[in-house]
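Chapter review. Work through the record for TRAP-type C4-dicarboxylate transport system permease small subunit before attempting the end-of-chapter questions.
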Amino acid sequence: MKKILHWLNENLEETLMVLFLAAMTVIMGIQVFSRYVLGASLSWSEELTRYIFIWAGFLSVSYCTKKCISIKIEQFVALFPKRGKALFKVVNHTLELVLFLYLIPFAWQYLMSAVASGQTSPALGLPMYYVQAAPLAGFLLTAFRVLQRLIVEWKVVLGMKEKGA
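Structure tokens for TRAP-type C4-dicarboxylate transport system permease small subunit:
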């Protein structure tokens, strides 16, 4: 169980995004083949690709948070010593955590409104709550990743751990 949790912690977002990218590529490749070779366009391919892209977009926020590759002012942060950098990051991560914790209830309401409406997608007949669950999943996972980063930076600020590269 510990190995599975470790693997999920290290690879969840990357694996899902690679699978989503591969699925989008295959689906759109089939669409292009059907349209130009067979002369018959698929009604569902673009819709499904769009929904997969939405999920990938929300997962990418978590991935960027985990890898610390978000937009930031590196040159300003570089002026500080090691603990100062870590303290700056603690403040930054705290603000991020507050933002995502604030957004989670709204994403939940959004999902529940989709469940209550019973709306389905036009081409696939897919319940729209599958698509509208993406913000909630993305915000929850991002809040978890921000919390992980916050703990790492706090250890640096408190001098408990040397920060790796």
